[in-house]
């Protein structure tokens, strides 16, 4: 049994010392020689050139590959536990939010507010899973705040920039990582570096990752939440001369998961839903992870593959860079929408075939001189073809359904057949950013980007014999929209010393239009614009034994592309819409302290107050009706619809406070042997899932992780034990009203709620092995 009081004492003692290790230190190039600073240099590419982190007038969090391995986290989604400013929700589309802001939607033409880039190529395909395995990672940079000038069309809230390890010339080498933990969680990763003569090298990587389920279908007996991910990546580097680099990457990833889609946490007393589940012993509540579903859950199946080609040509002191990317995604999702032993809406089958092409060309000036700059052009094109079928018996016996809905009826669906959805997105831009070094200490920053976007949405219904529409038959439709906008950035940077720098920037951001497909009707979502003020201070003190970076921000959005829960749809569900206004403001601080060569302590805190300033939308399910217009949930005088004014309410999945703490210790103990230990603690504050429904609040929680190991001093091998969520803290990813309870609850009874469990909401303990060989 774990002594919880002891762990809490240990944690509070660590807090009393100040702060514990933040993952950024893992990316540092640590000076080991005598007299070298104890905290080394961290280099980033936040301005599309290699620079010291402390010299960049951008708020950046860096998570190194070694920090990822020590944390025990294995997917990109888990970056939220290593970076205080990042939130992630797997149930709302791409799910990433920075400083409380992000796109929360599944619509196929939606641009994300937090851009994800892998080796220079943006992941712009809707519902792209990103990286389910963090294999062979050099580092991850989280650029906080709008980055539209240099990084493009879908970065109005920030960028998650991932870099994998490049091949090394003239070196044979191999390395690997393996873990095994509770719930049969296993990870196997292997990489090999192969020199091809003096001018080329090949790097091959592969991984296999598995996790057993963490829930049960008590009717069928199957585990739920099970997942397997496999993938390979090949990278070829060719350097025929000092002027030319050619770098080509090919990757393939295949994932199968048996996810939990609708786990009921509450149902109205006396409802048919409660009666259906009672015989199977399901106890509704915040810790329920079981279902009694008459349909086995095949879950998600998808494959992703792509090719990236980067060419760098050095024109004297300038560098001309071309980045070409192609990515393809094929996915299929099958699950039961009602998650009950009765056939209400048993069938939900969705397929998705998407592809994207990107091309970017940049000219980068030398790193020194009166004026440094980056200019370029960018092109993006994506195409998605999707189908969806939702159907069921609405609880009626099959023999009775034809008499209710017409001869030959076998199932009822919202449309009466198979929905074909299409989305196309095309974007072209020219951009540039320059820094004028007016004096040795003062620099002026200015940049801009002109973007032209074009999006389209199409819909076609294919009737299926025996399927009848639940409410109406939808006609084929096609919609198209385009938009152009100039976004820009201006700022000032002052270097008091080489290790103390302050900056101020003003940015105007833009995100293009989109379409929300509402049961066949394409609703145009207007472009989103933003204005951001940011002030920051970056310091390295006491011979760089201490670094402290602070940033304050104030960002306002107009026509923010928000996710709403619309009860006017049948069945009620989330959809994309425009909020009139949103504001996020606050501050961030990151501290790193290294008192000795063996010990590093650091921490990070984010306060981001994200609030709507102008947004009238549908009431949440069960919201009491007010008699006063403009207060609570009221009847719109013009339409008679039930609406609410969300001005002053927080954005969904956006806690005001979050912080990370940790510690890293490494010390030789015997001749040739090294002992190391690390701890990390991630805390997230209260957050709504559906604003402002109090029953959808996810309470604040914190996760403690530990890793202890013994290895060779030269780094050739290491054996360790690790724990994630050591205190076994329970939490869920999302809470929402049950979509299908209106068919099963007595008249006038508010529906119950469902929730989305997560694998990280339980203790995981395991062992790990790392090896490294090279010449």
Describe the structure.
It is globular and about 80 Å long. The chain has one domain: Maltoporin, Chain A (Beta Barrel). It has a 22-stranded antiparallel barrel. Strands 3-8-9-6-7 form a 5-stranded mixed sheet. 5% of the residues lie in helices and 55% in strands. The chain has 775 residues and is mainly beta.
Short summary of the structure?
With 775 residues, the chain is mainly β. Helix content is 5%, strand content 55%.
Helix/strand layout:
Layout: H1 4-17, E1 43-44, E2 51-52, E3 60-64, H2 65-71, E4 86-88, E5 96-98, E6 114-118, E7 121-122, E8 137-144, H3 148-151, E9 158-164, E10 173-181, E11 185-196, E12 200-211, E13 215-216, E14 223-224, E15 226-241, E16 244-258, E17 263-266, H4 272-277, E18 299-315, E19 318-335, E20 347-364, E21 371-392, H5 401-405, E22 411-413, E23 417-437, E24 442-463, E25 467-469, E26 477-497, E27 500-511, E28 514-518, E29 521-525, E30 528-541, E31 546-566, E32 573-593, E33 599-614, E34 616-618, E35 633-635, E36 642-645, E37 657-670, E38 673-684, E39 687-688, E40 697-698, E41 701-712, E42 717-724, E43 734-737, E44 753-756, E45 764-774
Parallel strand pairs: 6-9, 22-25
Antiparallel strand pairs: 1-2, 3-8, 4-5, 6-7, 8-9, 10-11, 10-45, 11-12, 12-15, 13-14, 15-16, 16-18, 17-44, 18-19, 19-20, 20-21, 21-22, 21-23, 23-24, 24-26, 26-27, 27-30, 28-29, 30-31, 31-32, 32-33, 33-37, 34-36, 35-36, 37-38, 38-41, 39-40, 41-42, 42-45, 43-44
